[in-house]
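for the writeup, i need someone to sanity check this before i put it in the appendix. the sequnce is what the collaborator sent (i think, or maybe the updated version? ugh). structure was predicted straight from it, no edits. if anything looks off just tell me and ill rerun, i have time this weekend
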Amino acid sequence: MSLTIIVLAAGQGVRMNSDLPKVMHPLAGRPMVRFAVDAARALEPDNLVLVVGYRADLVRAAVGDDLTFVTQEEQLGTGHA
């Protein structure tokens, strides 16, 4: 059986009052998205997909290039991703 993991990381985080994407805010010295991606990598999935959107360049730089990126051009919430 194959395992595909999809991490949703496209949100702007308007309520965080910052120019950073929501997932790029630091927690314990690392961007929050790194915790999700590192946990996903530990499961050794066949496919690891990161849905990016707002300031995708920052998110991509934070997680590396060894996964698949899908761009959500219009962010309409989690259900839309």
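The CA atoms of residues 53 and 72 lie 5 Å apart. The first strand starts at residue 4 and ends at 9.
thx in advance!!
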